[in-house]
């Protein structure tokens, strides 16, 4: 007779110009095109890990991002950065990033970024710092936007030639205001990396003549600050300028691109990405539209998403009378995943796939997956359910292995020896399987095994005991293994 295990289910005034960083209520584009490709990729790494960050151009807000090494997808996230781990030492890594919209359309890949990671304890390679394609746009009688493409390691761009002296930014554009009409300015732009050892590059220059008009501008807004934040918004506030022509409204710029105007002294920028750093410039405009120099303000959006996505496309396939393979996708970063049958935890994984073992024979399971989020942000909502039926077979199972531990590790070969205890209760175990996610990476007839693992990586493994009928116990508690590595002298 079949058994059925059922599960209970868990249950300021701002005017945005155009469709810049559009929120959910904004009208969709008439053109059925994918989102624009991410830009300004920066890869910062030491040892075997790195942080990859990027910018997303204006347009419809991307739902998520995908990171590729070559043609292999290596990460996803719902914000404009991702932590990359288990990279090894002294290896050159090259990545591209794509943006995905709410309908699943994927952009073209970004321009690639490469970096050679250093050996632990030694400084990483510092790439040359420069800038390319310097250009001027949005020229008025009193202001101009300068834009460029950053090249090399993270750095600071300093612009000289404006009336307020040198202005610095980490972005790929800047708004220079307070200029005189019908006047020629030569701006000098230099980019310096944050790391040491990069060669100095000569300044790049651009010459601009402002449009004719009446002279006079307000002075810059005062004390621009971040007054509030959520995971998708930043609220900016400032004090009106104290001199110059009277200000009637204010403009807000990101990388030299105007993203909002307001008549008040605060504004809320919407449709942003969580856990992301934003830098804005605030300028004052008088009744003639003449524009002041800019006040700069920067800040992070909230780290945790108010509505994180849930794992999707969950599939479940029975492997035997005692085990099921689950696979899923997740568009955000996750520390690990938990598999539920009802309210019962039946499996965990650090990747988007796992094998759940120790299940009952000839039983229907309704399985769901939840992601554990990084930075202490809790868990995602659980996925939609995947139903699966285990095959008919004997009811007996071995006991779950306990006390899984690392007995020894060889830093020269990466060979790790694991040991565990097999409890006496349950069906006798005749073999053991070592799992890494959904993959069996070793089998053995005793409660000890030596496995060659990738050097300088972190691996999470579990052990399942197997009886004479080939049916598995529930898997052991996960063991996290730091695989050592001694680089050659």
UniProtKB/TrEMBL annotation:
Domain Fibronectin type-III: 34-120, 220-306, 308-393
Keyword field contains Signal: no
Lineage per the UniProt record: Bacteria, Bacillati, Actinomycetota, Actinomycetes, Micromonosporales
Keywords: Carbohydrate metabolism, Glycosidase, Hydrolase, Polysaccharide degradation, Repeat
The UniProt record lists the keyword Repeat: yes
Superkingdom assignment: Bacteria
PANTHER family per the UniProt record, alphabetical: FIBRONECTIN TYPE-III DOMAIN-CONTAINING PROTEIN, TITIN
Protein name: Fibronectin type III domain-containing protein
